[in-house]
Design goal:
Length: 306
């Protein structure tokens, strides 16, 4: 059986669920909106055991061979959010989430992706060090809480962008010379990077499969191009030479069977890598029959039938 955990409205999860149905796979969907009607028991001794209950369905966790997990914060969702911070509903949801994450970490099942492996995205300097070992260039970077250090860094580069230092999604923005928010850095650690001109490529790794998309946009952050008054074009592309294998090794080195890798090709022909996303929202790129969702479903299904 294959376990899916998240929200029905989440497009990557919905895409994989449909593909698994087409494959005839046995699927247990753990809907976070129904967490108050769900339960889980996990025991750890010489292995990890337990059972999960979703409505009237009870599944032995030993029967789960693979899982694709894209949960949101349960305390923000539906009845849990309405119940309040100190409610029994909040405690139930937190205990359920903790237990299911524990199982995801310790089980022998195929997990996309294990929490310990996804946690690396929360340490940008550590991730950048791994990226360099695989032969990719990395932009000159400063992480600071000091406004004067940020201004000195900006003075050394023609153009600087900034974003959150955590793994939480943030909008990449260009640093303006008159940006008075630098004085707030003492309360908000921020990552500053030299702006690297070029064309963006998003590479998705799904097991041994490599999918590449070329992204063209004049926005600071193409994911929000429309909001920034710009356009974005996403088309299938091919990586040259040994780049597909380098991307495979990079994802494998981070323990990520599923990953989204952000690359940029400069006018001089240099390949920069900015980040590896351990829970990529691949549907934005899965156009023109690229087949990322189908590949994720196959990877899960292979673990079920093995």
């Amino acid at each position: 059986m294959i376990l899916l955990w998240g929200l029905l409205q989440d497009m990557p999860l919905a895409r994989v669920r449909t593909a698994l149905r087409d494959l005839g796979a046995s699927v247990l969907f753990v809907d976070q909106r129904a967490v108050l009607d769900s339960g889980i028991r996990v025991e750890v001794d010489d292995g990890v055991h337990g059972a999960i209950t979703v409505g009237d369905t009870v599944v032995d966790l030993a029967d789960v061979t693979a899982a694709y997990v894209r949960p949101y914060d349960s305390w923000r969702i539906g009845a849990v959010a309405r119940a309040g911070r100190d409610s029994g509903e909040r405690r139930h949801a937190a205990a359920f989430d903790d237990s299911l994450w524990l199982w995801c970490e310790l089980t022998d099942a195929t997990i996309l992706n294990r929490p310990s492996r996804m946690a690396g995205n929360g340490c940008k300097p550590g991730q950048a060090a791994v990226i360099r070992t695989h032969g990719f260039s990395v932009p000159d970077t400063l992480i600071t809480t000091d406004a004067e250090s940020a201004r000195a860094f900006a003075a050394r580069h023609d153009n600087v962008v900034y974003k959150s230092v955590s793994g939480v999604r943030s909008i990449v923005s260009q640093l303006r010379p008159d940006d008075d928010r630098l004085d707030d850095l003492a309360w908000c650690p921020t990552q500053f990077q030299e702006h690297v001109p070029g064309i963006d490529y998003r590479v998705h790794i799904v097991g041994e499969d490599v999918f590449c998309s070329r992204v063209e946009s004049g926005a600071d952050d193409y994911r929000y191009a429309v909001r920034q008054g710009d356009k974005v074009s996403v088309v299938p592309a091919c990586l040259p030479d040994d780049l597909p294998e380098r991307c495979r090794r990079l994802a494998a080195g981070l323990g990520l069977p599923l990953a989204g890798i952000d690359l940029r090709l400069t006018p001089q022909g240099d390949w920069y890598c900015f980040e590896i996303n351990p829970s990529p929202a691949f549907t934005f790129y899965d156009r023109d029959g690229l087949g990322i969702g189908d590949a994720v479903a196959r990877l899960l299904h292979e673990a079920e039938v093995a």
